[in-house]
């Protein structure tokens, strides 16, 4: 069993309305000095068996084509187990 | 993790029928499951042994208040007993939803249902799954769902928790309906502190089909297959039943069970398309949606309505959570599932259709020539019951009820001029109108309605802000329907009998002023605890009132829903019988809307205005007052108004009913909703300016007609026994001008709009 | 013979029958296409309808872009097949690279459905030929993720090449430069966020302004045959 | 400057339509043996100054009240810098 975690965040130059809303809410609820909040996605993918090179390559490709849209998002992969 | 491999689950400890028969003295947790001692005994008498744990699970949930209507049943019978004679009813109460004939071979089905308690815990998902549930009910009748509506009640606008619930509920209703592709064509949103801990989320769905396509929930034909399709089954909504699971699964113990269900509108959209395709190809002998009580309900109802027995192999049910026990599988309330009874000749095609839409489908059982519903877990028989005893012969309570002692005092507390000072100058009148228009219950609903798709499917002829939603059913002929959903809970608090009738009266009027002929009724009765005799009295009175009024109006109740226990500690919500009325329009091109008026058109007020302020918006907003006698119910006048409007619809350029806030609010809305102004005088009317403007008497509407048609329409009113008054004209200047006995009220559109449009966003900020 | 225009249905497409109705009202024959097929059946143009393909649970249009039929559409579009993507269809076009940029969550974070004033900026695309540049129309907008974004260079390029097809008058969602719709280099592929197919008859929409998109394509295709 | 990352995932027993959709897409695109996919949210919060105990306590509280709904979601905080 292999677990891969893919993290996707909007690129810094893209406006993040959700992050902005969270920042506003945190500040209203009393948290001081919130400089910035960005909201992204996290995918936890469980694969049967172990992660061979082929599947890892395909997954890396799909992370950049399916899970993230590189026009607006950055992404990263992490093999957990 | 999902897995279909149920065999992985240990079979050790499964409570079989055989074992139950052999071990009569096993202690069973019937009380934890909400059963009373005598109910448990009745189960033992029916089965002539102790129930297995799976049987106990089924009976306990099917005999619950929610599924068995045990407290309400004795009262609801009036809807049948007092059912008006009508040719329109094709399928009456008792099925998933009633079906109404609207002509040309078209049938329409509609129903409103509550999802109140889940919406307080998780507003988004609670509301979303509420929409999902009612849509499946409509689908199960054989209809293509066409539109949804939502009637909402929230706590006080200024309470800190209110915006959380409003935001979540509205996003949930919208999120599910929008993603499903059903237009939202109307509803209500009301704020009152009595709903603080008990918000109400009532969702309505309406669908249409050809007469020959009506499907019923029944399993007939020995050898027919039982197909479960849609989402995989998870541990949703089975909190209580876990006590059984923990008994049987000694060592391993079940995984944690979710307290809240998450909706999957995409799956539901696929379910709709795949089910409609099966209907189209005549592949389905009987069908049932899986809602409350899941498989317990679907299998026992299908079997009970059929002419044979049914055998179900529970281990075949596709699971989302492999640790579920058989008791839990049979109880699971996982959303987005349907069950169809299919002839073996058609099974391949059914599976093909499901595969085409990427929907998991599994044959889980078959119709037998026996009389019992039998459920197997692998090879062991774990349920063997007469299905009728589960589905239909649940307990019936004659709960005690009595009129609350405090009601006399409340009814005596009229909003008199001494008790609630009235405006006396034109300036005060203006101020009161502005305060009303910017109050939580009368302000612009745009913040909310703009989150709902009202255009999808391309047949929406009227939605917000119109008095009722109008949908085209037949593109060629223009045949269509109008639906409205209404209730004023404060009237119910003053007099539940009248309150229910007034809700019906308002919904009927909204449908009528759109030019439609009202045909049928659905209702969602939201009340406090039935164990409180005073609440029970309110409930009994409301049902009696609604049944009586439906008989008079000739509009049968076709189905609905009861939601009890809406209360925090000792305080119940106002009796809130939400009523939906369905009307037919032969050609939607002839519908009447709130727009349509032209400069120079005359403005007529139709209907009698009495001095009626109790329970109304003026007393609520200006004085926070709730007391006195509810407005007089005048169903004959309501019918007369509907007839006049319908018969003169070609002459009527626009119409708007009078309800919350009375004439002042109706006129202000005309100014706010159109690009014209209104200039009227109350000098020729039957009562003083204050009464004319703020009374909430029933059976009234403002209509606009061309000057040359005034006499014809007024003559028709007179003939129908309705007073009418020529109030004034539609003016080019965009303002509200009213001449009263206290002087001239003149409010510009900008002034009206300021508070009216900002009030709801301010509550949500 | 009238033009044949394909309307693709993805699982979760919602406005597909509306798009087909609009195609017919515009004077062409609507050909229903299924996402899992690959045969475009020789259609003269394609509409990608609105909705929530695959629930739009990932990013709008992200999964639909990989549908077999989209493979065919992408190839054909590169060869000049006119394609109109409405709402979810616009998102699919951006995801598949036929149009630049992307659509993100509305700046106010709510789904918004309203009658929207839009100004036509380019009247020389396959789908806007019957409009006049500068013309203002009212058609419904309804989306949760309709905010158009692209980098400055792309935005400048779109503007310089007159590839902004329509702009919002009163921006409903935070779209950069008020962009409601754009076109590709060859002006055959158009993506538009608001819904012209819901404004073909004042009975069921705010206006009949949207019908012009569907008559435009008929005009364009007729001119091609004539040429 | 302190950076806190809050991760919010649906509880394992709760239906995750988003994860299911991604799982289906990954499988269709050729990735074999995908046992499960769960989709969650990730908030990157930048605070001015250093993270004192008060602000950390408040943030932990708000993570469970604002960023996550503990009825259906699990969450975790991680201080990054
Ligand atoms: N919760 C809701 N969902 C959908 N539509 C709503 C909702 N609340 C109000 N509306 C719509 O907004 C409009 C104005 O609402 P309201 O003022 O309550 O209507 P009325 O004047 O008929 O009582 C109506 O068209 C109504 O159907
Ligand atoms: Mg009304």
Q: What's a quick, concise take on this entry?
A:
With 81 residues, chain A is of the alpha+beta class.
Which labels suit this protein?
heterotetramer; A: 81 residues; alpha+beta; Mth169, Chain: A; three-stranded antiparallel sheet; elongated; B: 765 residues; Phosphoribosyl-aminoimidazole Synthetase, Chain A, domain 2; seven-stranded mixed sheet; 26 helices; 23% strand; binds adenosine-5'-diphosphate; binds magnesium ion
List strands and helices in order, with pairings.
The complex is a heterotetramer, with 2 copies of chain A (81 residues), 1 copy of chain B (765 residues) and 1 copy of chain C (227 residues).
Chain A: E1 2-10, H1 17-28, E2 34-47, H2 53-67, E3 73-79
Antiparallel strand pairs in A: 1-2, 1-3
Chain B: H1 17-22, H2 37-47, H3 53-62, H4 65-68, H5 73-81, E1 89-91, E2 98-103, E3 106-114, H6 116-121, H7 123-140, E4 144-154, H8 162-180, E5 184-191, E6 200-210, E7 225-230, H9 242-248, H10 265-280, E8 286-289, H11 294-305, E9 309-313, H12 326-331, E10 337-342, H13 347-356, E11 361-368, E12 373-377, E13 380-385, H14 387-391, H15 407-412, H16 426-437, H17 446-449, E14 460-462, E15 469-472, E16 480-486, H18 489-494, H19 496-512, E17 517-526, H20 533-553, E18 557-563, E19 567-568, E20 571-572, E21 576-585, E22 602-606, H21 617-623, H22 635-647, E23 652-657, H23 662-673, E24 677-681, H24 689-694, E25 701-705, H25 710-719, E26 724-731, E27 735-740, E28 743-748, H26 749-764
Parallel strand pairs in B: 4-5, 9-12, 17-18, 24-27
Antiparallel strand pairs in B: 1-2, 2-3, 3-6, 4-6, 7-10, 7-11, 8-10, 9-11, 12-13, 14-15, 15-16, 16-21, 17-21, 19-20, 22-25, 22-26, 23-25, 24-26, 27-28
Chain C: E1 4-9, H1 16-25, E2 29-34, E3 45-48, H2 68-78, E4 83-86, H3 88-95, E5 102-104, E6 112-120, E7 136-143, E8 147-149, H4 152-160, E9 164-168, E10 179-183, E11 189-192, H5 211-226
Parallel strand pairs in C: 1-2, 1-3, 3-4, 4-11
Antiparallel strand pairs in C: 5-8, 6-7, 6-9, 9-10, 10-11
The structure holds adenosine-5'-diphosphate (ADP) and magnesium ion (MG).
